[in-house]
Design brief:
Number of strands: 2
Largest sheet: 2 strands, antiparallel
Distance between the termini: 62 Å
Number of helices: 5
Strand order of the largest sheet: 1-2
Strand content: 5-15%
Radius of gyration: 19 Å
Oligomer: single chain
Order of helices and strands: EEHHHHH
Length: 115
């Protein structure tokens, strides 16, 4: 059996067919952002018992469920961060740079206020 090429762009053997991998843009991941902030704060899933069940939080962190804005606000409060922090982290991977993303958002907000 041949090893699979795990490089960003390569060929992967599936059965007897080779499929060319293409670099796909990474999708926003609220799940990864939530888990990252929770771990950075040193909190367990059980620490969110007043906000949601451990099962629901686990589902959010695995990307099986999507939270409402109200839930994002509650989770952010429990984490001690602004809700936009979670959203910025979720989208930062798409722009490759958090600073680039924040600059874009700032410019768009300035543009909206000028109207």
């Amino acid at each position: 059996m041949n090893p699979i090429d795990c490089s960003p762009i390569g060929f992967v053997r599936v059965s007897s067919v080779f499929i060319r991998q293409t670099r796909m843009p990474q999708k926003p991941s609220f799940a990864a952002a939530l888990k990252t902030v929770r771990k950075a704060r040193g909190l367990s899933q059980e620490a969110f018992s007043e906000v949601s069940s451990r099962t629901y939080l686990s589902s959010l962190e695995r990307g099986l469920k999507s939270p409402t804005l109200n839930k994002i606000e509650s989770l952010s409060e429990a984490l001690g961060v602004h809700p936009l922090t979670l959203l910025a982290l979720a989208y930062a991977a798409d722009d490759k740079s958090l600073q680039k993303l924040l600059a874009r958002v700032s410019a768009e907000l300035d543009e909206m206020q000028a109207v």
